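Methods — Computational structure assignment.
A single polypeptide chain was analysed. Its primary sequence is given first, followed by the predicted tertiary structure written as structure tokens.
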Amino acid sequence: MQTSLHLNFNGQCEEAFQYYERCLGGKIEFLMLHEAAPASQQAPPEWGKKVLHASISIGGQILMGCDAPPGYYEEPRGFSVSLQFKDADEGERVFRALEPGGQVRMPLQETFWAKRFGMLVDRFGIPWMINCEKAAQDQQAPEKLQAVAG
């Protein structure tokens, strides 16, 4: 079994996936607009150019998405798309690429568990966590854990 994340957008799925393709080095594998679907006449005419289903391959994983139907969109909450990097420079590049027009919840910085860790919400409203691995010998056991508020 494999799990995949499916993201709902408020009308910007195609733009978001093209953006993720560029900044995350992904490849859009599938993108179908409502107007190309067999049941296209069932969608409102203004929804013809909205995404019915899309998938993008990023680092061997699949991320899926669509434009939520009218009245069904909800802001994402209660999760983050977590990206793991061995190379801190690549993690930094991706964090900076996702940042414009978004909101940084925790600046990218060193932590006791990571060479770099940061959280942000991109301009499409999607929450991300960037985690850059710290070598095992570099990790220190904290005396007590503290929650990070974002």
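Note: Confidence is low (pLDDT under 50) at residues 141-150.
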